[in-house]
Amino acid sequence: MKFYRRFEAGQVVVWAGDRMDFVASVVAGMAGLTQQLEDGRTQMVGLLLPSDFLGRPGRESAAYTVTATSDLLLCCFRRKPFERLLIDNPRIASRLLEMTLDELDAVRDWLLLLGRKSAREKIASLLVILARREAALIKRRPEGRIAVELPLTREAMADYLGLTLETVSRQMSALKREGVIELEGKRRVIVPSFQDLVLESGDDSDGGPLS
Amino acid sequence: MKFYRRFEAGQVVVWAGDRMDFVASVVAGMAGLTQQLEDGRTQMVGLLLPSDFLGRPGRESAAYTVTATSDLLLCCFRRKPFERLLIDNPRIASRLLEMTLDELDAVRDWLLLLGRKSAREKIASLLVILARREAALIKRRPEGRIAVELPLTREAMADYLGLTLETVSRQMSALKREGVIELEGKRRVIVPSFQDLVLESGDDSDGGPLS
DNA sequence: CGTTCCCTTGATGGGCTTCAAGACTCGTGG
DNA sequence: CCACGAGTCTTGAAGCCCATCAAGGGAACG
What we know:
Chains A, B: It comes from Paracoccus kondratievae. By secondary structure, chain A is an alpha+beta fold.
């Protein structure tokens, strides 16, 4: 009933429209849900980090293409038994509802980012989000000088932010030039002052409760 | 336990952060959830139509400002009794989960719209969405020549689409000039060919099941 | 008949995309 | 060992789409 699956960076987990008879939880690594227009324009519509849930109970086929953006480890359950589990165990169903509502809130913040933020603010916002998610795993709140893992290509960042990869690259360079961030290789960012990064992100909310 | 509340177009239902001890279902009219950056930039992050659910069980205060975009009638339940209902009645809880998952899918389509579509495609997409929602209420699928109610100001449309109200106005004029739409007053649109409008919206999906 | 709200239209400029070329990194094979 | 190539990223130049600033039209209301 429960089993693990491993994917390398860049591999596709499922294609939109394909049959999908499992649900899963991310153990390690990162995955993106993406949607496309006919002419190929691509937008990421979900970013899955450790502890996130993948799949929809009661649905036969995948609504979105899921791609591993870094090496990825999934803990999978066959869908039918999982659906039974939901019916028999209201506590689990209730927990799933809560996770879904949290995800809905996160996606709504994402709408604000895509609709109203500048390229620079978008980049800063993404780094803030990743820093907060990383810190939340160890029940902490980011502050001062911190390091952020960035297991995304420039292209994946662009698809998340609704930009081109060139613009992402330019804005990363600009933030570096101005000392807001430092780069250790392409996929690791040092943030000298997390507070300053939050200022660059446009919104001043403190990130809410640790939950 | 159950009561009705009425709001006029433009009135605020709740302010973000305010205490909210009811949940509600939209009976008639339309409401928008909006989020703001400190400098005033506004993005709509939810659009509630008849049959949609408002509020989050288990949460004390509103996360977003809710505004009636047209005259609005809500069917409200006090939050505490409603939460008890969810615990005692798994069928209702399960239904709420399904509605939340549907909303999540809708918001993900919205991400694609904000991140990757042109102003013209955004306008067309909004009209397609409203036409489909309206048609779904009577279990039909829009096609051919149809009318679409547009109970939104140009500014509310702009906040939904991540544009300025001037751009919305210009693109509406352009679509009209080219015969894709006709206007009956400012808040009612005639679509000579729904299929043509879908082509203008950028994605060619058929709108999925009627559910 | 003036005020207010909403909408339309014009002119201008800027932020991001597009197109293009080159740099860096890493793994492979000569 | 080093040359080569593929994938990823950076940087430059040009142009377009949409935002911004500005003015005015139209309808509803007192």
